[in-house]
# Entry
Amino acid sequence: MWCFATGLPGGAAEWKSQVYMATIGPMNFASFDLNLLRVFHALMNERHVTRAGQRIGLSQPAVSAALNRLRAIFDDNLFIRDAGVMMPTPRAIALAEPIADALRRVEHALGSTGRFEPAAAERDFRIMGIDYFSYLLAPALAAIQQNAAPGIAVRFVDAATGPIARLLEEGRVDLALDAMEEQADPIRSQFLFSDHYVVIAAVDHPDIGREAALDLDLYCRLTHVLHSYSGATVGNVDAALAAINRSRHVGVSLPHFFSIAQVVAQSRMIATYPERLAAKLAPGLGLRLSRPPVPLAPIALAMYWHRRNDAEAGHLWLRERLMGVAKQSEFLSAPPEKAALSASGVRFG
# Structure
């Protein structure tokens, strides 16, 4: 199964391919097994022999054998095991981009007919998106996949793996799901749905009454839990509070929404949290939802992809399915005005 993005025309990509061809020029190219490049690319992405094999449909022994052949061909270890991780050597790092580009070009050539048959396709798609997206979108997407495209594998990748533009450019992910913000060409975007903020607290929190909106003084006095990929202790809530000369104390920051909800449910802390996810988790965890006492712009959520995949049939099929899931789940609504979109690197409260 191939999950590499299609190729880049000319320019830097052409130069990379020329570098790669020069690299293997001294070898007997006629006898070179191009499948070895798939193994190399999978190892660069997974850094693990078994997972690399799963990515391209090979057994662990087959990947190990291919790696030994690659080591002999390039006269380099290429990958060295370190604490369970296959770490690339400088030689492997130098080969990574030209080989990835060559594979993208091959796939583009093979798939240039524009036909995509979901029922017969065997392909991996990688989607970068935090647990917020996987919880809301993955169940319906998985049902479509199982019924219409059983040979396709969809993998959600944690959002902390790198910047959106770089991951899409390198073909390490096919789609990225995140808060909507401006991205420079060649990154494309499509609005998916919007969400609003609520304040979540334990249902038996001793300081919070039954009022629909939380009191501002109490909101500032209580300890907050913040969503952050990097361990930051400030977010867009802090900017909104500063605008009215108020502040809060963030006691815990976590990269996953499920862990935030669990911390709040089992403590006297509170969190400013996306409403759609809060409404789904509240009954099972014992959470109370209140309106924030400070105005907060709604969240606009979008999917991102590289422009080389604009018309690629399989990629288009996946994007249409995601849009369909958003509509069926009644997520879809008019996007907020541009002025309301997050401009900071810290989002979701």
User: Anything to note?
Assistant: The longest strand covers residues 187-195. The chain has a mean pLDDT of 83. Residues 142 and 167 are 23 Å apart (CA to CA).
